[in-house]
Amino acid sequence: MSRRAPTLEDVAREAGVSRATVSRVVNGVRNVDPQIQDVVRRAIARTGYAPNRAARALVTRRAETVALVVCGAGDASDTPQDTFAARVFADPFFGRVVGGVVGFLRPRSLHPVLMFAETADDREEVLTYLRQGRADGALVVSAHADDPLPALLADARLPAVLFARPSRPVPLSYVDLAHRDGGRLAAQHLLARGRTRPATICGPLDVPASQERLAGFRDTLARHGHAFVPVAEGGFTLDSGAAAMSDLLARYPDLDGVFAANDLMAQGACQVLRDRGRRVPEDVAVVGFDDSSVAVTCRPQLTTVRQPVEEMAAAMAAVLDEHVRGARTEPTSVVFDPELVIRDSA
Amino acid sequence: MSRRAPTLEDVAREAGVSRATVSRVVNGVRNVDPQIQDVVRRAIARTGYAPNRAARALVTRRAETVALVVCGAGDASDTPQDTFAARVFADPFFGRVVGGVVGFLRPRSLHPVLMFAETADDREEVLTYLRQGRADGALVVSAHADDPLPALLADARLPAVLFARPSRPVPLSYVDLAHRDGGRLAAQHLLARGRTRPATICGPLDVPASQERLAGFRDTLARHGHAFVPVAEGGFTLDSGAAAMSDLLARYPDLDGVFAANDLMAQGACQVLRDRGRRVPEDVAVVGFDDSSVAVTCRPQLTTVRQPVEEMAAAMAAVLDEHVRGARTEPTSVVFDPELVIRDSA
DNA sequence: TCCCGGGAGTAGAGCGCTCTCCCGGGACGG
DNA sequence: CCGTCCCGGGAGAGCGCTCTACTCCCGGGA
User: Fold this and answer.
1) What SUPFAM superfamilies does its record include (chains A, B) (predicted)?
2) What are the mean pLDDT values of chain A's consecutive 10-residue runs (346 residues total)?
3) Whether residues A244 and A159 fall in one domain
4) What is the 3-state composition of chain A as percent helix, strand, coil, each rounded to the nearest 5?
């Protein structure tokens, strides 16, 4: 096949200097005569030299790689057609996370390693991967707030940053959204639209984010005289949103406003409402959450609470970078503010 | 911080054997007394040893990593809100690719590095990444068939496998679909449903896959007496599908069947049809392509030509693995058959 | 004239692993 | 009984890089 790749040694010989001098030029260390720099650079170009990263990593103890870990429930079993990874990306949310992370990493010539962790074995593998020094740290996005991975990472003293605050305290940095404020924005908007019988499709209640969104929504309505608010729990999927909407309609046929805890469920709700002959927003106003791509794809387009996922993901990467470089040692939290995006559904 | 990680040496001392013996146990090489194996394994557990991959990679010249590269147009400029990566994952297609790739890699304890290549610099970086030995090969998914990356990879003799046949021949393996057969299936189904004035929303015509789907559709209709078939070109996005549908309706108001070259465009078409008061499938039957998640999300659910993306992606990974291991040296092609999935839209 | 400081470059010791080569000893055949 | 083979295990040479010494040389001050 192709012969051995050129090494520092080869370049040094070609340029007539020592290995160390070439290394200095490659790594941009000063104390090298500009003329010699030029000679070396030409030699590098001529030989087509690319520094071997394994060798560099061996001595610097840095992989210059981060792991992007998506943790899941591991409840459903995989088939070739329907893998965990595919299910994850069915929610446009993760695409945005990847986009944000890459947005931060790419200018630094870094690239994430994608890992999916459903089972205990998978989680162990993530730990091993980091311990082997194949990645310098992990960005962790969990479907459930009580995922055991964060605690494992913290125990192993491996650098990691979480998306969303874990349900039980863990000494790791995290990036989150002020979910309660998001719920408040939704409530205020429905009230401003003159809705008098609002209801909500909340997310899984074992997820703190769902609880907070619900709490913010309820509290705000309570402050305006709505002591009781109908609630149906969904699972952040289209189908669960549709089911929850059916449930709400059956119990409270006269409702005129719905806040769904994410856009996918809002879309499901819209479909059910339309099937039952309710016009959106005239008969029932619908507010979503996330401002994901389905908010625009959906008909009518969704009024929704925007979560700046890309910025949040980028912040995650930035904080991890600080941890890895040792510029930050204590865990921090970065909390972003939600924003109401008004479209057609409310 | 944490003290030095344990090395082979440490384990060897702990177990009272030599470094080489521990290495043998770790790598599962035979010729080691079972009793000693046990001693070593216990020592590994006690020390919490994890082999340093950089060191191993240095000598084996294997990174045990593959790059998953997504090539894009690089036409639109990125904003923090709307990155290339986010745009890529807006199409559920890529989620399925990732799912398929991971499905193959995970049982082998491998994990893909995600790379996005829009600009010439990005492509150069992919090459450098591979040349540095950070990944053993690349799985390339291009938005456009004339992307220059495959040729660059082939020239550099770097192991790579493509998703879809490139528009100009390149000595690389690829995995593809019998797109022409897919177009045929769509045409046959519309005919079977008694449609007499079929039209099509094709994909970008610089993409061979689009051409083939269109050709298969047209040829089959021609064989049944339809000499002329109205065509509007789309860009595989929801909006472009909607625009193409409007266009077709304006030109051929009496059409009663539409074949869209992917599900996203089919969804856009359905929305426009509904807005114009046409019932789907009663007035206009719609057939999509891909069988992606939107096929099920869409109302009505889409009848569509299934592309087994997960299996195709897994096959890509499998072929790359053979190339990397040296089990295969000549480029091959693996072509999958499409399958009609009948739901509600036609 | 000598010495000393510092910039430019070299020599070489590892980083942690794999793998070839070698050695000792037990089984076996002549 | 000795030579041969094989098998379990050890010693040690790298893999390609970084980085800490150290050397060399030149200029300036005493």
Assistant:
1) lambda repressor-like DNA-binding domains, Periplasmic binding protein-like I
2) 74 85 82 82 90 93 95 66 76 88 93 94 95 96 89 95 93 97 97 97 92 97 96 94 97 97 95 94 96 89 96 97 94 98 96
3) no
4) 45, 15, 40
